[in-house]
Amino acid sequence: MSSPLMTVEMPERIAALPTNHAGYPVPWFVAWVDGKPDFRLMDEEKIHLAIIDRLCWICGDGLGRWQTYAVGPMCAVNRISAEPPSHTECAVYAAQVCPFLITPTKGRREGRLPGETKDAAGFMLKRNPGVVLLWTTRSDPMPFRAPGGLLFTLPDPVSVLWFSEGRSATRAEVIASIESGLPALLELDGDDPRAKAEVDRRYDEVKRTLLPA
């Protein structure tokens, strides 16, 4: 099978990024450790720069009117992102090429992380959801403080795109991914029936308005 690097057209902004030893572009947000990019880590300073200067999370160039969040499918339910937005074309390219995003069986590599590494803000499901959601809006980021740092409220979308394995995701794939993550989301609220009812309401709304046909 051909590498997606060879078959997917690379946006000019991403072509200007440095590459790693395997030839993959290094996203602007990636932290460099001992002179090498560590794709598992994000440079925390870049979050603040992205917000203040309205910069694309993936390429680092200025954002225009359209802003796209590349998130897991559970974010459609809780309307929260751990990362600021990107250019739509940058997010689409990442959804088609990023090894983690296009390989559902690929887990997170957490061995031999730098000693000062800390978890992302809020609560993160440490899994590969197998599906990525591109949530496009015309609203500027809405950050808020959470345990461990900043999170972002997802504004109402103008459009959404769902990807799995680098291609358009099916409705069944999206539903399977969301429903496999719902138990962990519900655990956060314990046995609170009102919280469960709210999650159920939001999921019903997602199924009505955001899922692929």
What does this structure look like?
The structure is a single chain. This protein has 213 residues and is of the alpha+beta class. The chain has one domain (4-107, 117-209). 33% of the residues lie in helices and 20% in strands. The protein has helices at 4-7, 12-15, 44-53, 75-78, 88-97, 99-102, 171-187, 193-209; strands spanning 30-33, 36-42, 67-71, 80-81, 132-137, 142-146, 149-153, 159-164, 167-168. The strands form three sheets. The chain has a four-stranded antiparallel sheet, covered by helices on one side.
The N- to C-terminal Cα distance equals 29 Å
Helical coverage, percent range: 25-40%
Largest sheet: 4 strands, antiparallel
Low-confidence stretches: none
SSE order in H/E notation? HHEEHEHEHHEEEEEHH
Widest beta sheet: strand line-up? 3-5-8-9
Q: What proportion of the residues form beta strands (DSSP E)? A: 15-25%
